[in-house]
Structure formats: structure tokens, C-alpha cells
Amino acid sequence: MIELSHVTKRYGQSAVLEDISLSLDECGICCLLGRNGAGKTTLLKSIAGYQNITSGEIKVNGKRISASVLETDVSYIENFAGHFNLPVHKLIRLASEISPDYDYDFALEMMDRFELDGREKFRQLSLGMKTMVSTIICLSSSKGMILLDEPVLGFDAIMRVEFYDMLAESFCRKPRIIIVSTHIIEEIAETVHRLIIIDKGRICFYDTMKAVGEKSFAVSGFRDDVEDAVRTLNVISREISGGLETAYIYDTPPAQAVALKVCPMSLQDLFIRMVGHKGGRK
């Protein structure tokens, strides 16, 4: 279980995380979405205990997390970590020796799947292969919380598909809390169970993917008709052009009517309407 209570992280006068409260208490794969600079990496590092927060509290399985806590139930590896520049097979072996119940067989299977040469040193690998090695080490861990920061960075389309399969397979072998930060929105939608959106250091959305599919809609039509239909609903964004309007809602959709067009929103559209295009009246 991960619990964040009023978490704030400041660098000087700038708040990178601001008053975040969130509880993850069920096993599942959670997608963390946010624009560049929204605070995704800072949030993951703070949960992992790689850095101290300015105020608030983070607990993992009831244990308070800080940079002074040496052993936690969190597995997190920073992108571009040097890993002592060891050969890949030695890195995998070393990880298995220092982590109890490490899934060494899974790590070897994934090395074969991604055609990793165990003799190559880490720094000789391409960006995509470096990211893949770090991800395999993380997912093979026995820890109850797995944090993956932009794990598809440098992957081509085929590698990304293989990664999502690997992620699902890892979860099936050991159900736990996995948080994946990514910019590739639609591709991961079928793999994850829950969605977190962070914007300007604040959590602006958290729900299940099932709820996202049931409650994300665009309602279009004449302005007065749309306004009447969504008056009591949660409108996250609007587009108005003359006498026409499209309201983007996260709620139970209004009943279909001749004067209205009600269409489901994609995950990407939901994300854009939450943190990108602000809309507003013209």
C-alpha cells in the first residue's frame, strides 16, 4: 500500500509537487500521465525514497519513507543509471544475489525475448536497450511496489508492444502495485488498471480504467441544448464556436437526443482536455 498525505516538494521557491494526497491500496498496474515538467519523476523518486520531500508524509505498507530509510518494499531504477558499467549478465546476476526471491528465470526469459547480449557492457547499449535492462531488473524484483519511469523511452513500435506484454506477464506472475510513467498514452490503455494524471505538481485525476471507459464523453450540438444537457454534470472542458458547443464531460452521459451528439472520448482526448486545452467561453 502506498499512502501520500499532503506531499509537497520544493526546490527553492518553486513547488514541483504541491499538497498531493493519494492512496493506492490494491494490486494493479497504474499509469501516471503528465506533461513534461508536471512532476512525474519527482513523485516516483519521492515514493522510492531517493529524495526527501519538503513537507507531508509518504508511507509504504505503513512504513514512513525518506532518504534515510535504507530498505523499503519499492523497486525503482533511474533512467540512464550507470549500473557500474558491468556486462548485462553480471548486472542481472548481481541483482538476483542482493534481492531475496528475485525472479532470475523471468529476467533470463526477458533477456532472450529482447535479444540482449549478456556480454555487452551497459554503457555500450543503445538508449532503448539501457532502458530495457533497467526495466527487466525492476520487474524481476520481489518488491511489492514497482516504479517505472518512462520505460518505453527509446523503444521502437515492436519493442513497445513486447514491453506491454512483458508488463502484463510480470503482473500475472506476481500481482502487486506497478506505477508506469509514460507519454505514449493510447498504447498502454489496454494494459493498465488505473490512471493518475498529474498537472503542475498536483494530482488532477485518479480513477480506474473501467470508469474512464464509462464516463468520458464529448457532447456536441447547439449551445443551448448542450448547456441544458450538461448543466448538472462534471464538465472538464468546453469548445464554443458561434451557436455550437462541445462539452467534454467526465460523468454519466446524458440521454441521446436528436439535437445532441454524444461520443466516447479516447484516453488521449481525456488527458488533453484535463491538462492541455483549457477551452472556455468565447
Question: Could you describe the 3D structure shown?
Answer:
By secondary structure, this protein is α/β, with parallel strands linked by helices. Helices cover 31% and strands 31% of the residues. The strands form three sheets. A six-stranded mixed beta sheet has the order 6-7-8-3-9-10, sandwiched between helices. Helix 3 runs antiparallel to helix 4 (127-139). The termini are far apart. The relative contact order is 0.14.
Write the layout of secondary structure elements.
Layout: E1 2-11, E2 14-24, E3 28-33, H1 40-48, E4 55-60, E5 63-64, E6 74-76, H2 88-98, H3 104-113, H4 127-139, E7 145-149, H5 157-173, E8 177-181, H6 185-188, E9 194-199, E10 202-208, H7 209-215, E11 216-222, H8 223-230, E12 235-241, E13 244-250, E14 260-264, H9 267-275
Parallel strand pairs: 3-8, 3-9, 6-7, 7-8
Antiparallel strand pairs: 1-2, 1-4, 4-5, 9-10, 11-13, 11-14, 12-13
Q: What's this, in brief?
A:
This protein is 31% helix and 31% strand.
